[in-house]
């Protein structure tokens, strides 16, 4: 495991629970192979993820692009990575230092870069994509000067590659159904092969440089001579019944792995033209295969769901391992196994949700990830809550859903008459959910009681003893109610400078905190609700998205769309720790405490981050 990154004298970034690749139906995913065999690369948003191929829970993230990154590749030496984004910028940065120092930045053309490749001497880079004036370019990695012309295609380039040895050659696959062949350097167009009937999604040279292959939307895989570009053979008739989005050679140059929209991956013997293994990946739309990688003994494919599948040639019926997670923005989080159960040996699970309704359960080290089974939310999950027995969530599909932790599946759904904003659950299993000007009280036996409010509610929290309920409203007030069965009696009102965005109680019930839209965080000491922060905690530059006390109530964490994490001490209100750029260039959307000294955050970078707070 990598050493923790020190943020301040009390906060360390321990690990990143990485995002999955961002996938789009009908588009291939570009994976980067490590020449040293230790890691592999993919992109999501403005981030490049460097994951350990033996243990994917070990991850590093590069976040210096200002816009969406579409591809990243190691240099053959392994010392540098080049990454290209949708605005046409290529950044070349080192892999040795933790800071990933920038070596060069170039803009070959104005438009998205879909793929890139290095020459074997680490001196030149070819890029392909959709520019305003051209679709490809080849340039020096040191100075950025042109070393040839990539011409001959009439539509966007989807894939590029270099021959791995001299004499150098370059190939492109484009949306005009063509494979173009170039000689150099300087690289000049030699010939165009129009054997495919639909978009060419991927072209790849064999490691020994003797052959190259192309895969296209017509399901065909064609093999060409690596030196002359002459067509030699075809695999299958056709190789797949759906579009081919991924193609790669094994290290010996004898076999090819293909990944297709027909929900299969296949391994081919190139010399014999025969099919060796057929991996059926499922029957759901999300089981389409959109990318692949063959690195050492690891055979990997990417599903449309973003899942990373490790394949086993001896057991083609089921992947050896499936790495799950999010590839859309994380919107909510809770941790089961902390409230009401302080046994350090007890199982603790992190539940996180994304705006596509996907809910993932993680173990505390991120080494085990599972999708929650059953009828999931069909829209964004707004909020999570948990007690010592169950986890509940509410979403923009106007439902409250109960998760059975033992079976990791949904066990119950309650339909609401309006769209929920926030949810909490008491230790007596009463669920409180606010929606517009309503508060829903859902009993464990299924009885639902609705109370109409004379203001629009935004956030809700229940006292750990289950005796009081706090509701934040758009009337710039926090309303505190006494709970008596299903009856609510308002007992206190607190004025704020703007409408309330978050309210929360400490686990012991000795503190209460609230945040308003002007980024003010207020803290009160109970039972008198005496304000102790005195309008001092106003450190965020953007809307506050979460407010969470540590398990002992001695720390309070807040996150915001300003990308920052703030830590306050109720017993020392002048002591504030600021973690700026906690999720760099991405809003932080949620947080939850695992222990008194371990905090998790989630953000629009689709990642969870684990922090040590000393």
Notes on the structure:
The protein starts with a strand and ends with a strand. The protein has 2 domains: 308 residues, Methylamine Dehydrogenase, Chain H (7 Propeller), CATH 2.130.10; 214 residues, 7 Propeller (Methylamine Dehydrogenase, Chain H). It is 0% helix and 51% strand. It contains no helices and 56 strands. A hairpin with a 7-residue loop joins strand 52 and strand 53. The N terminus is likely disordered. The strands form 14 sheets. Strands 1-2-56-55-54 form a 5-stranded antiparallel sheet, with no helix packed on it. The protein is mostly beta strands and 614 residues long.
Key traits:
614 residues; mainly beta; Methylamine Dehydrogenase, Chain H; four-stranded antiparallel sheet
Give a topology summary.
Blueprint: E1 5-6, E2 11-17, E3 32-33, E4 39-44, E5 47-52, E6 59-62, E7 69-74, E8 80-85, E9 90-94, E10 102-106, E11 111-118, E12 124-131, E13 136-140, E14 157-162, E15 169-174, E16 179-183, E17 188-193, E18 200-205, E19 211-216, E20 221-225, E21 231-235, E22 244-249, E23 255-260, E24 264-269, E25 274-280, E26 289-295, E27 298-303, E28 308-311, E29 321-323, E30 330-336, E31 349-354, E32 359-363, E33 369-371, E34 381-386, E35 391-395, E36 399-404, E37 409-415, E38 422-425, E39 431-435, E40 438-442, E41 448-452, E42 457-462, E43 468-473, E44 477-484, E45 487-495, E46 500-505, E47 511-516, E48 521-525, E49 530-531, E50 544-549, E51 556-560, E52 565-568, E53 576-579, E54 588-595, E55 598-603, E56 608-613
Antiparallel strand pairs: 1-2, 2-56, 3-4, 4-5, 5-6, 7-8, 8-9, 9-10, 11-12, 12-13, 14-15, 15-16, 16-17, 18-19, 19-20, 20-21, 22-23, 23-24, 24-25, 26-27, 27-28, 28-29, 30-31, 31-32, 32-33, 34-35, 35-36, 36-37, 38-39, 39-40, 40-41, 42-43, 43-44, 44-45, 46-47, 47-48, 48-49, 50-51, 51-52, 52-53, ...
WD repeats: 62-103, 193-234, 237-278
Pfam families: WD40
Family: Belongs to the WD repeat AIP1 family.
